């Protein structure tokens, strides 16, 4: 039975994990992820799941434990943020290189230094080239449903997948969430049935060998191919999930895009504020729209270029820096547009680092700037930065 | 197990791996793996053992094997063992099927970078055996000092020179660190005594919960002695009381071997190139210091075993 209830993003993700009932979950606290594991641990203590819950001594071991469990033949999950994700970095590559379908919620938080517990995307962007599928989520409902999509997608293409949601804003903000029927969701993810698994001791195999010049390159090409394949599979599995949830899982969401002249591209919770700004500006007859990427890895270059082809002005809002280079999302959009015959004038904005608020008037200002056509597209804009 | 039984056990580590001639760890791994008849899954830290036995597309491991990284052999096997419990519960593994778990690591991967993950796994009480093959340096990257390198040994990052005479700190006492976790079984063994090693491995595998074995493994490349002398050097380490064979069962210490005659430490140090500089007349006092340290540690151990 479906149930609508007010939940934080962290509670929503924990409920998804409860319904999936993974074989092994590794847990280590870090703000603002901790609430996911505390909620899940309560489900565990109350016998609502029979997961093997391993309370490891670090995130490095959390990912190592997931690697061992997944290779052993178990469905393995964990969650982290910021420094925790950074500490896992080496083992993230082991997970994807060993083709292990681990699912992990990442509650986006700024990286040190200085230490800061609030939202930006520097953590997940910092590991974007590490062979993990990345799904970004605007709402608690999206975060909840993406967990199911992630598990199934990961197991289909044999690559790990992270489900990204904004620290505090999504993880701790309460929204009404529709929890879908337990049985139905269990039926959707089904059991994990790996082809090769360590605990199948009658068919021994070696995981994580030394590969030198003669093989390593080919292995990497296979990983790259699997990542490309993940795009189609994401859409297919999304369609299947839509039959249960009634929601859609596009590569990116388009909001008021049909006749839009000025487009903002932004991921996660800020897309919600942007929609409110669009509703307001549309009433004044302004042709504004939003493109919200959901699948960031693999990145849907072709489809995004197609969606932006006839737009006049586009701004990309990044919630992370890439010091001395183009901001991560901006760089992808720019490269998506390179081959297009017709393309919008494009500008990069950085916003919200370390949890700095972004308000509706800030976004309205971006649209106004775009619509005026008078902006320096080569200069990076900083939204809400003091001293400007 | 006697020698005959031991050598007649099925080989779980195939020949043809690429470790150096005279390397100590192949017999260690074979003896340990032969000491249980249950199916067994192994994890291994990055290091000589891993890189010489798993060069793709070949593998020497006839049992399920996983290598993840340098510092997480114990955390990785934690995950495998957790999966075993979960899959048994869900019925994917038959209730009556017993699988054993072993994690291997070198001294660097255990004393140093992997200490946290090992400590975590021991504290959580996973049912596995950790085997540390102790060759007293980072051999895979070219004989750099580890905290398992003994005082006085020359390594590539603590070389003997005009001012410094090799490693200047004592070897970390890894067994005591393991014992401090209050785990059911800890033991020190040596490659030259496979019967003792196999007895300890058998005990470790039949222990419920974590068990920890440190096995002394001379390395001809790093220690600089002729390759056929590995067993001899290991034996000298034990006879000179540099490497006592003992076990700690549920906190109770037991000495497994008492050398019958006094072998001075020089006899153990002399054949090894890594100690060559100690035999210069001006370094005489270092050997004396080592001898004194060995005597004191032995006394402490004998007292612990008496209690
Ligand atoms: C995080 C990390 N740091 C450094 C290395 C390089 N490295 C690989 S093996 C090794 C030394 C291994 O030494 P030890 O654990 O003593 O095992 P041995 O090679 O002697 O068998 C080092 C430093 C690595 N693989 N990973």
Oligomer class: heterodimer
Backbone structural class of chain A: alpha/beta
Q: Tell me which ligands are bound.
A: thiamine diphosphate
Helix content of chain B: 25-40%
User: Shape of chain B, please?
Assistant: globular
Strand order of the largest sheet of chain A: 3-2-4-5-7-6-13
Portion of residues in beta strands of chain A equals 15-25%
Termini gap of chain A: 52 Å
Number of strands of chain B: 8
Number of helices of chain A: 12
Tell me what the structure shows:
- The complex is a heterodimer of chains A (388) and B (307).
- Chain A is globular.
- A seven-stranded mixed beta sheet of chain A has the order 3-2-4-5-7-6-13, sandwiched between helices.
- In chain A, 41% of the residues lie in helices and 20% in strands.
- Chain A is α/β, with parallel strands linked by helices and 388 residues long.
- The longest helix of chain B has 23 residues, at 284-306.
- Chain B has an eight-stranded mixed beta sheet with strand order 2-1-3-4-6-5-7-8, sandwiched between helices.
- Chain B is α/β, with parallel strands linked by helices and 307 residues long.
- The relative contact order of chain B is 0.13.
- In chain B, helix 2 packs across helix 8 (194-206) and helix 4 (73-89) runs parallel beside helix 6 (115-124).
- Chain B is built from twelve helices and eight strands.
- Chains A and B meet through strand 3, helix 3, helix 4 and strand 9 of A and strand 1, strand 2, helix 4 and helix 6 of B.
- Strand 9 of chain A pairs parallel with strand 2 of chain B, so a sheet runs across the interface.
- Bound molecules: thiamine diphosphate.
- The site of thiamine diphosphate has 17 residues of chain B, from helix 3 and helix 5.
């Amino acid at each position: 039975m479906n149930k609508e209830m007010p939940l934080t993003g962290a509670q929503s993700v924990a409920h998804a994990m409860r319904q999936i009932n993974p074989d092994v979950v590794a847990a280590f606290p870090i703000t603002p992820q901790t609430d996911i594991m505390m909620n899940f641990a309560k489900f565990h203590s109350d016998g609502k799941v029979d997961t093997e819950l391993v309370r490891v001594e670090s995130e490095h071991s959390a990912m190592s434990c997931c690697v061992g469990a997944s290779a052993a033949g178990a469905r393995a999950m964990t969650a982290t943020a910021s420094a925790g994700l950074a500490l896992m970095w080496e083992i993230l590559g082991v997970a994807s290189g060993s083709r292990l379908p681990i699912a992990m919620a990442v509650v986006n938080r700024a990286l040190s230094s200085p230490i800061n517990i609030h939202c930006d995307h520097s953590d997940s962007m910092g590991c974007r080239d590490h062979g993990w599928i990345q799904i970004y989520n605007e709402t608690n409902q999206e975060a909840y449903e993406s967990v199911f999509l992630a598990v199934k997608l990961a197991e289909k293409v044999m690559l790990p997948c992270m489900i990204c949601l904004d620290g505090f804003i999504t993880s701790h903000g309460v929204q009404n969430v529709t929890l879908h029927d337990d049985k139905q969701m269990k039926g959707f993810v089904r059991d994990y049935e790996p082809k090769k698994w360590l605990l199948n001791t009658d068919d021994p195999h070696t995981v994580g060998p030394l590969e030198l010049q003669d093989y390593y390159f080919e292995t990497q090409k296979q990983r790259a191919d699997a990542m490309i394949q993940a795009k189609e599979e994401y859409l297919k599995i999304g369609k299947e999930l839509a039959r249960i949830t009634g929601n859609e899982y596009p590569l990116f969401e388009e909001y008021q895009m049909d006749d839009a002249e000025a487009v903002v591209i932004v991921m996660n919770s800020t897309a919600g504020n942007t929609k409110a700004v669009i509703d307001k500006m549309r009433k004044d007859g302004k042709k504004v729209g939003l493109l919200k990427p959901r699948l960031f890895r693999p990145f849907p270059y072709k489809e995004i270029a197609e969606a932006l082809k006839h737009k006049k002005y586009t701004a990309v809002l990044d919630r992370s820096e890439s010091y001395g280079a183009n901001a991560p999302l901006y760089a992808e959009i720019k490269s998506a547009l390179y081959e297009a015959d017709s393309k919008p004038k494009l500008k990069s904005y950085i916003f919200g680092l370390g949890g700095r608020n972004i308000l509706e008037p800030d976004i309205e200002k971006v649209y106004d700037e775009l619509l005026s056509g008078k902006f320096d597209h080569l200069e990076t804009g900083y939204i809400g930065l003091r001293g400007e | 197990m006697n020698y005959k039984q031991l050598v007649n056990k099925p080989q779980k580590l195939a020949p043809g791996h690429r470790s150096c001639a005279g390397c100590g760890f192949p017999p260690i791994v074979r003896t340990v793996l032969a000491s249980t008849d249950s199916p067994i899954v192994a994890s291994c830290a990055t290091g000589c053992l891993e890189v010489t036995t798993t060069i793709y597309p070949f593998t020497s491991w006839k049992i399920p094997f996983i290598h993840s990284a340098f510092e997480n052999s114990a955390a990785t096997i934690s995950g495998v063992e957790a999966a075993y419990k979960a899959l048994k519960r869900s019925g994917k593994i038959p209730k009556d099927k017993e699988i054993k778990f072993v994690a291997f690591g070198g001294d660097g991967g255990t004393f140093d970078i992997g200490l946290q993950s090992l400590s975590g796994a021991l504290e959580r009480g996973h049912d596995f055996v950790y085997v540390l093959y102790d060759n007293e340096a980072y051999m895979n990257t070219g004989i750099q000092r580890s905290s398992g390198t003994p005082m006085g040994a020359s390594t590539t990052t603590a070389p003997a020179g005009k001012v410094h005479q090799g490693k200047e700190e004592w070897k970390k006492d890894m067994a005591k660190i393991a014992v401090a976790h209050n785990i059911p079984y800890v033991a020190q063994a040596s490659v030259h005594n496979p019967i003792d090693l196999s007895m300890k491995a058998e005990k470790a595998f039949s222990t419920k919960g974590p068990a920890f074995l440190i096995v002394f493994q001379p390395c001809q490349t790093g220690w600089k002695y002729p390759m056929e002398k590995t067993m001899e050097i290991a034996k000298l380490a034990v006879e000179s009381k540099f490497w006592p064979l003992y076990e700690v069962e549920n906190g109770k210490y037991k000495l497994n071997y008492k050398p019958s005659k006094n072998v001075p430490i020089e006899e153990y140090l002399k054949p090894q190139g890594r100690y060559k500089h100690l035999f210069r007349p001006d370094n005489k006092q270092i050997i004396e210091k080592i001898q004194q340290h060995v005597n004191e540690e032995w006394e402490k151990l004998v007292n612990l075993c008496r209690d």
